[in-house]
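Let's sit down with a protein and look at its sequence and fold side by side. Which protein we use is up to you, so please pick one and set it down. Label the sequence line and the structure token line clearly, so we can match residues to local backbone shapes. Go ahead whenever you are ready, and we will take it from there:

***
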Amino acid sequence: MQQLSAPAFVSSRPQSRQPRQAILVVSFGTSYHETRKKTIDAIEQAIGSAFPEHRIYRAWTSKMIMKKLLKRDGIKIFNVKEAMAQMAADGITDVIIQPTHVINGIENELMIEDALSCKDNFHSIRFGPPLLTSSEDNDALISIIHNAFSDLADDEALVLMGHGTTHYANSIYAAMDYTFKDKGYPNIFLGTVEAYPSMETLLRMVKEQHPKKIILTPFMIVAGDHAANDMAGDDPDSWKCQFIQAGFEVECVLKGLGEYPEIHNLFIRHIKQAMQQEPTP
């Protein structure tokens, strides 16, 4: 599935300031400090190492998480508009915005709107695409997952938990699930917490494979609240408990996609793609 990335914005006005370049890494966010260090922090550090000539900035899109961190821990995280304002105040002239969002859904579209509302403060703004944007991205991620769980036995099933959305981009989850099978991995399944494929669908499909053991892991950048509770929690509605109730042995691997260095490299590749975008008059 091919999804178009946002166009670059380049001002037609002459640049009056000495060019200063920055990369704004935009994430949904997490209130779990340990998984943040392993994922969002690690991605930002990898990007900083790959592009030492750029200043690296951070913004999150989850208002709920940012509010929780501020109230609970006194930690202030910029939203996109606040980060754009800070960059302008710091004299940044040219910005590449790289989301760590998995798909080009609602969060990503709102992020682009917020960023472009600040366009008059910059000479250029370019956007890197989310994690899964091209067929090459899909193939790369399938390879990363397969290699990470290369010891998966024939009588085991790997079940990935995605977030899911009401946005039409949600169709990529079903497409990825199908592609796993098409590439010869019939015992790898991908579902979502909040959309399709649902847990009900997954349970039916997994039962048809008759595995002895289920391995659950998040298909999200961070192994945060959804992973800890909806996937691996002890509530009867959690995926772990539902699979146990269905008679399966279950193992949970609380490792977000952002912990894989290969995922960092995908985001770096996306930034390089953004740098090649043709200016928009």
User: Anything to note?
Assistant: Residues 9-131+260-275 form a domain with the Rossmann fold fold (CATH 3.40.50.1400). Residues 48 and 56 are 6 Å apart (CA to CA).
